Amino acid sequence: MNEDDCFPLMLSQRECGALYMDIRTAASRAEVADILPRHHLSEDDFVAGFPQLAKWVQDLPDDIPPTG
After folding, report:
1. Smaller CB count within 10 Å for the chain: N or C?
2. Would you give the distance in Å from CA 40 to the centre of its chain?
3. Domain extents for the chain?
């Protein structure tokens, strides 16, 4: 991730870093869907602003299977 990744969305480097870490530690697409509003991002803005990260999210499971 470089500073140009955050420019179209007008996010600071700190905000971009926090979003990146939250998304990379998510275990499912459902968890990512909960994370985006916390960063004031729509799904469309996320895909447009972070295309590589959005591709990575596509490989996550839809939801985490229940344990037990």
Report:
1. C
2. 11
3. 3-58
Query: Could you give the CA distance from residue 28 to residue 34 in angstroms, rounded to a whole number?
Result: 10
pLDDT of 2-43, one tens digit each? 545 565 567 788 998 999 999 999 999 999 999 999 999 999
Return the SS3 of 26: coil
pLDDT at 68 over 90: no
User: For the residues of the chain, what is the DSSP string, one character each?
Assistant: --HHHHGGGT--HHHHHHHHHHHHT--SHHHHHHHHHHTT--HHHHHHH-HHHHHHHHTS-SSPPPP-
pLDDT at 54 over 90: yes
